[in-house]
Amino acid sequence: IKNVRKQIHFNEYYRIQQEIDEDVDIGKILTRIEKYQAAVDFNRRNYEKVLLNISEYPELKRLGHGVVYAYAQSLYKAFRASLRKSDAGNDPPHHYLEEAE
Cα torsion for 84, 101, 25, 81, to the nearest 10°? Predict the structure, then answer.
């Protein structure tokens, strides 16, 4: 029974790891095609998913760096895009920078 539990734990960890990796890729694609708000929201949810699962699966810490990077990159690119638009008289949303910190 102990081996079965270990296998179930490993299978669940592997499933979560694959899901997080796929979500990082989706977030990067959304950023690349300039769907910045969608990328920010998607990457935020992925970051929260890592935080929720990290206590049960400490191995996810190594994935956390890539998730945080993708999230921060989407925030930065959204801010940069808003700066370009602010030339037309709109104020850039500085909350992106605050959230990135």
Answer: 0
Q: What is the pTM of this model?
A: 0.75
- Enter the tokens of residue 49: 């998913």
What pLDDT digit, counting tens, does each position of 54-74 carry?
Answer: 888 888 888 888 899 999 999
- Rounded distance between C-alpha atoms, residue 11 and residue 94, angstroms: 41
Of 47 and 84, more confident: 47
Residues 6+ apart with CB under 8 A from 96: 40, 75, 76, 78, 79, 82
- CA nearest 28: which of 65, 64, 72, 81? 72
Distance set, CA 7 to CA 4, 15, 52, 54 (Å) = 5, 12, 21, 18
Name the residue among 3, 4, 85, 87 with its Cα closest to residue 37: 85
Q: Where are the alpha helices (DSSP H) in 1-101?
A: 2-32, 36-53, 61-86, 95-100
